[in-house]
Amino acid sequence: MMKCRFMTIFAAFAGAFIGVSHFVYGGELAFDLPIDCEIGKTCFLQNMIDLDQKSDGFVDTLCGDDGYNGHKGIDIRVITLDDVTKNIPILAIQDGVVKGVRNTMEDRLITGGRKPQYIQGRECGNGLVLDHGKGMSSQYCHMKKGSLRLKVGDRVLRGAHLGNMGLSGFSAFPHVHLSLRQNGQLIDPLSGKIAKKASCSAEIVEKTPFGPALTKALLESRDDIISIGLTDRRIDFQALKRTGKMPLPTLNSNALVVWGWAINLEAGDVMRLKIYKDGVPVFMREEMPLDRRKAERFNFAGRKFSVEKGLYKAQVEILREGKILEEKSSLYNIQ
Questions:
Q1: By three-state DSSP, how is residue 220 classified?
Q2: Are the C-beta atoms of 201 and 111 separated by less than 8 Å?
Q3: Do the domain assignments include residue 19?
Q4: Are 153 and 301 in the same domain?
């Protein structure tokens, strides 16, 4: 999350998981992902840019509302707060020269949606700005205190390790924020167009800053099930957000509980929770349709159950307009 006077750079994925063809600015520049992760598995697109910067409304790249008013770039998130301890690398998206650095803000999770006074004007937190030439610059934010090893004037190559993902600035979940600017104008990182309301489109053009394959993967991850699991007890979502883990059922358990955690759901979406034993369904619950958009949605359900040896499967489905939009499952061999 961010509204920042300070600028930062963006980083590289180097196509480790997805073959990427590159968008080209001015015939020379092509960009890679700014975080070392696997899109749709370990990281997800949480927020898009607000193309309607001049009003209180919000319009994202696809003419939808996946984000919030005034957002100046994209947010690529990981799943849990404990992921921040893994020192996930933030990488240079392209060759550039460092034009601004901040590295001293504390890593603090912001809750409740209110912006503390101490981050006014420093919403970006720790990060840096890279100048890529020909008027193009990239900014990213919320890096871990002390993890940056660069100074103004340093030259970096695409894929260089710039620092680590953190929780500095106006950050309500662990992520890297990326902004792009060309000649001072805000650019949509997903479409490459100047950020203005009329530039939204239900279709993404082939030439995008990340290339069609990576752009498609990012967009597909924005309304995903980011985590599921099976346990034998009621779940504390705040604790789960920190660790992503719950105790697994054992032969001594007397209940089975399945849980699902999804992002960017729309009004009318339904979460369906299922449990199977040795391929046979033993539990299913379909939640009520959402009454409004949810940036984040968590549900769990279960039943009393005498757990016996067998292969158990937790399955979570998201239904949109009666059709399965997304589904994930996980197997548990209880012996």
A1: helix
A2: no
A3: no
A4: no
pLDDT value for 111: 84
Cα distance between residue 200 and residue 188, in whole Å: 10
What is the distance between the alpha carbons of residues 308 and 291, in angstroms, rounded to a whole number? 38
Domain that holds residue 293: 225-334
Which pLDDT value is given to residue 206? Answer: 67
> How many H-runs (helices) and E-runs (strands) does the chain carry?
2, 17
Pairing of strands 185-187, 175-182: antiparallel
Give yes or no: residues 69 and 96 share one domain: yes
Cα–Cα distance, 305 to 282 (Å, whole number): 9
End position of a domain, from candidates 220, 246, 272: 220
Count Cα atoms within 13 angstroms, Cβ side, for 323. 2
Show the tokens assigned to 235: 């779940």
pLDDT for 55: 82
* pLDDT less than 70: residues of the chain: 1-29, 205-206
For 276, left (φ over 0), alpha (ψ -120 to 50), or beta?
beta
| CA–CA dist 238, 219 (Å, integer) | 27
Same domain, 139 and 243: no
pLDDT for 149: 87
pTM score: 0.89
Q: What is the DSSP string of 94-108?
A: S-EEEEEEE----B-
8-state DSSP, 263: E
123 is a domain residue: yes
Whether the CB-CB separation of 209 and 246 falls below 8 Å is answered with: no
pLDDT on residue 10: 28
pLDDT at 117: 85
Rounded Cα distance between 22 and 30, Å, is: 5
